[in-house]
Amino acid sequence: MLRIISFCIIVLSIFLFPWWVGTVLAVGGVFYFTTYAEIIFFSILIDALYGHGMMMDRFIFTFVSVLIFLLAPIVKSKLYVRS
User: Most exposed of 3, 50, 56, 58 (fewest Cβ within 10 Å)?
Assistant: First the structure.
């Protein structure tokens, strides 16, 4: 349920706020949830709305989000979080 609510909040923030608000929330979701593949959907949406340029420049958020998605498990395993 929390994952669905976070999805809705991030989608709304992409449409209502500047691009960086949705980006920060999506990256936070990657580190909060175990596998948060929705970040790739969010980055495609941000690129479609705010992207400009030609060819590779247009999809810069998508490339960065795929890297974050792939590197997040490594970073999470290195983090020490005391519960």
Answer: 56
Residue 83 lies in a domain: no
DSSP codes joined into one string, 25-73: HHHHHHHHSS--THHHHHHHHHHHHH--SSGGGGGHHHHHHHHHHHHHH
Closest CA to 31 of 68, 1, 63: 68
For residue 56, the one-letter residue type is M
Write out the residue range of the structural domain in which residue 46 sits: 2-78
Q: Looking at the 3D structure of the chain, how many domains does it have?
A: 1
Length of the chain, please? 83
26-62 pLDDT, tens digit per residue, is 999 998 998 899 999 999 998 888 877 776 678 888 9
Q: Is residue 55 part of a domain?
A: yes
Pairwise CA distance, residues 49 & 13, whole Å: 13
